[in-house]
Amino acid sequence: MLLLSAARALVDDIDSGVRASGFTDLRPAHGFAFVRLSGTGATTTELAEHLEITKQAASQMADELIRKGYVERRPHPTDARARLLVLTEKGQACTRAADAAAARTLEPLAASLTPDQKATLRTALTRLATPGRIRPIW
Questions:
Q1: Is 49 helix (H, G, I), strand (E, B) or coil?
Q2: 32 DSSP assignment
Q3: Please, which pLDDT band fits residue 132 given cuts at 50, 70 and 90?
Q4: Is residue 136 included in any domain, yes or no?
Q5: Angle at 19 between CA 13 and CA 25, to 5 degrees
Q6: Is 18 exposed, middle or buried (0-12, 13-18, 19+ CB in 10 A)?
Q7: Could you give the CA distance from residue 54 to residue 124 in angstroms, rounded to a whole number?
Q8: Looking at residues 84-89, what average pLDDT do you find?
Q9: Containing domain of residue 75, as a range?
Q10: How many Cα atoms sit within 13 Å of 25 on the Cβ side?
Q11: Does residue 138 form part of some domain?
Q12: What is the C-alpha to C-alpha distance for residues 87 and 52, in angstroms, rounded to an integer?
């Protein structure tokens, strides 16, 4: 329960930081989508798989993010039938704001631990976490 509480506090603090940076039209779930879309982008199917939602729900989220200017559709580089969802400059700026908010949130937590405690915590969390599974719990 403590781990879930800490994770929720982190998400809430990042969301507050993103909103304070002027990105007031997003929900935390959008940030989890941005994690998958950053870099090379993703198809709607890949986004749905990442978020563990239906393709229809992922398509609706993509349409919303496109309308708000955070995401755009581009031709897929290797599949002429598919379209790639990629972050726009506005989406990238929002991601940078989220990264900065996460760093600000973690600073006091890190400062309250000794180097040995940080190493122990990192080791424990590495054992518990599933790599690449940064998504909301719906």
A1: helix
A2: H
A3: low
A4: no
A5: 125
A6: buried
A7: 32
A8: 97
A9: 2-128
A10: 10
A11: no
A12: 20
Q: Which residues contact 76 (CB under 8 A, 6 or more apart)?
A: 43, 82, 83, 84
Asked whether the beta carbons of 71 and 58 are under 8 A apart, the reply is no
Decide: 31 and 133 in contact? Cβ < 8 Å. no
Helices 28-37 and 44-51 cross at an angle (nearest 10°) of 130
pLDDT tier for residue 131 given thresholds of 50, 70 and 90:
confident
CATH of the domain at 10: 1.10.10.10
pTM above 0.70, yes or no: yes
Residue 53 resides in a domain: yes
DSSP 55: H
Name the domain count of the chain: 1
Question: Helices in 68-114 by DSSP H: which ranges?
Answer: 89-111
Of residues 89, 131, 110, the one with CA closest to residue 10: 110
End-to-end CA distance of the chain: 17
What SS3 class is residue 70? Answer: coil
Contact 98, 31 (CB under 8 A): yes
Average pLDDT across the chain, whole number: 91
